[in-house]
Amino acid sequence: MTFIKNKSFMRIAALAVITAFVVTGCGSQTDAFNNYNVQMPVSSNDSSTDGIYSQDYLSDGICVIPYGKQSKSDEVMTSLAALMVNDTSDKMLFSKNIYKKMYPASITKIVTALVTLKYANLNDTVTISYNASHITEYGAKLCGFAEGDKIKLKTLLYSFLICSGNDAGVAIAEHVGGSVEKFADLMNKEMKELGAVNSHFVNPHGLHDENHYTSAYDLYLVFHELLKYDTFLDIINRPYYTAKYKDASGKKKKLYFKSTDKYLTGAAKAPDGVKVIGGKTGTTMAAGSNLILYSQDKDKNDYISIVMHADYAYSLYTQMTHLLEMETK
Fold first, then answer.
1. Which of 43, 95, 133, 164 is catalytic?
2. CA–CA separation, 204 vs 257, rounded Å?
């Protein structure tokens, strides 16, 4: 990543890019950006706010949204950040603070899922370590695996995303990366390769750390990429899941998990004409209530919607339903 400090050049380059964005629209006409080394303004949350970065490429088929472009104020959307994209036409329908530095809580798990699906063998057998089975942070959600349990990586990934168990996240990170720290390096490398430049991760699960952050737009880039994986689509569409594995002595075990996605379990209702495929929730005191979602309208157009740092769960789903209503207009 090349940083340029000349402010005059920065203004000219940024203006040129933003003008190009406005002319071409969001994502559907990307030829203007396929010459590479497109100059983009750095987020105001970046430590180098007077610079711009040179992005070597832009992911194919994504919705490119100008920095600073916001939707009109909406009294329903009280969360700190939100984004709604028609992922079929690459059109932005709603945007609020999408480049703002945010704590993602368990939405972090979609990044872990991408690294795992891209680089690991899901047929591997994982042995649950002491570290994975002894997470002591208050409020941390756990699947309940014990030290020495042996479980197929694919089953572990399903449990991880559906239950949102942090113990499964540590086990995945240790198996795929060798350690939590090395796996976080893989996560950060993958984010850079996606063009997600406003993110930094230190763990696979999203338990709070001040150096663990992302943005709504970066999460959109990850989710857009994950929709290419049939396994991921199957996982996020399941309201319930039974994990089958063996304990340290070889005895067969089962654990039953319920999705944290209220649309899937029936606790929340999507607007008529909207089909929710699934997504990922995330909640901590610092991050608030968060949800990223994949849905389709009656014509099978795909949508990715994100609400970050809602005050509480009811507000989170009220705001997400409001975004989903845009699919019917």
1. 164
2. 20
Among residues 73, 65, 53, which one has the least CA distance to residue 22? 65
What confidence tens digit (pLDDT) does each residue in 189-246 have?
999 999 999 999 999 999 999 999 999 999 999 999 999 999 999 999 999 999 999 9
Q: Tell me the torsion sign for CA atoms 160, 161, 163, 164.
A: positive
The pTM for the full model equals 0.83
* Rounded CA separation 41/66 (Å): 9
109, 154, 262, 280: the catalytic one is 109
Mark whether 8 is an active-site residue.
Answer: no
Catalytic site residue 164? yes
**The two structure tokens encoding residue 100:** 């703002």
User: Is 275 considered catalytic here?
Assistant: no
Give first-to-last CA distance, the chain, whole Å. Answer: 40
Token code pair at residue 24? 């071409």
From 106, 215, 259, 305, active-site residue = 106
